[in-house]
Amino acid sequence: MNYVKEYANFLRQFINTPNKVRVLFDSSNGSTGMVLKELYLNHSQVEAVFVNDNPDGEFPAHGANPLTKGAIDDVGQAVLKTQVDIGAVFDGDGDRVFFFDEKGSVLSSYESFRCIKGGFNPPYVLDSRALAEFTMPNEQVVQTKVGYYFIRKAMEEHNAELGAEYTGHFYFKNFFYADSGILAAVYMINYLSSLKGGGKALSEVGDTEDFIRLPEVNFKVSSPEGAIDKLKAYFVQDKQVRISELDGLTVYAQKFALNIRASATEPLLRFTLVAKDQKVLKTIAGKVEGLLGKDE
After folding, report:
1. Which of 33, 146, 164, 219 is deepest in the core (most CB within 10 A)?
2. How many Å is the maximal CA-CA distance in the chain?
3. CA torsion angle 62 63 67 68 (round to 10)
4. Residue 1: is it exposed, middle or buried by C-beta count within 10 angstroms (0-12/13-18/19+)?
């Protein structure tokens, strides 16, 4: 049995592209290239450009993790060079994906979530780093701890059809509540195909957030629990903020929101911050750094 063909045939049922789309797929020398070729090579409505599509366990192009600093800088340039409508870069095993608009700018996972959520019924499940009460106050969002186990559990409990994480994981009820970078790409391409019918490009809708997000920062500390307690003691003094301890420490204020939690895999604290403007972002980031020390 040809399992690549079987998998592609399963995924093909989700494709809906009324208008032609030109796409760059960067497989990071991982496992997705063979499936994407079976799915989109010679597709009548999707013109696909494949790069780094040959599997290689050394991952020579730019590494297997798109979140590694500088790892996907060349993807945006490739998008511009090939003049595609959208770029997609996958991690090594294909369970994560990040998208680029036609101008070569990367979308956050939550921006991509905003694009595809219209095809799914609420509620949606997002990890704590989304800071959804601040960033998406009008959406029906269930927030949960970071990680596959917690996202899936919440989706099953709330009968949610779509979930997403900061790290590029997208979860689908119609994919057995599992995460799939390829299926996320299918839905993004569908979305863009529909968008093009109205004469719009991805860059015209991708940057609609009225806040600034600081990329996740790591702090190396001797006692993660003690460091979180120190931050809590500081922020709890402000009676206008709301504190949540769902996943580490989350602080909601009028002009900012933050989450800081201990990594489950490394001796680090992971810090996420959003703010209404650059001045507030810089002030709060500086205060946290002052309390915890320099970031790693």
Report:
1. 164
2. 63
3. -90
4. exposed
- In the chain, what are the domains? 3-206 (3.40.120.10), 212-292 (3.30.310.50)
Single-letter residue type at 288: V
Q: 51-90: per-residue pLDDT in tens?
A: 999 999 999 999 999 988 788 889 999 999 999 999 999 9
Q: Band of the pLDDT at 296, cuts 50, 70, 90?
A: low
User: Which residue(s) pair with 106 in the sheet?
Assistant: 100
What is the Cα–Cα distance from 102 to 32, expressed in whole angstroms? 22
Structure tokens at 166: 């900061």
Both tokens of 14, joined, read 């989700």
pLDDT tens for each residue of 183-224: 999 999 999 999 999 999 999 986 567 899 999 999 998 889
Tell me the pLDDT band of 264, cut-offs 50, 70 and 90. confident
SS (H, E, C) the chain: CCHHHHHHHHHHCCCCCCCCEEEEEECCCCCHHHHHHHHHCCCCCEEEEEECCCCCCCCCCCCCCCCCCCCCHHHHHHHHHHCCCEEEEECCCCCEEEEECCCCCECCHHHHHHHHHHHCCCCEEEEHHHCHHHHCCCCCEEEECCCHHHHHHHHHHHCCCEEECCCCEEEEHHHCCEECHHHHHHHHHHHHHHHHHCCCCCHHHHCCCCCEEEEEEEECCCCHHHHHHHHHHHHCCCCCCEEECCCCEEEECCCEEEEEEECCCCCCEEEEEEECCHHHHHHHHHHHHHHHCCCC
Residue 230 CB-density burial (10 A; 0-12 exposed, 13-18 middle, 19+ buried): middle
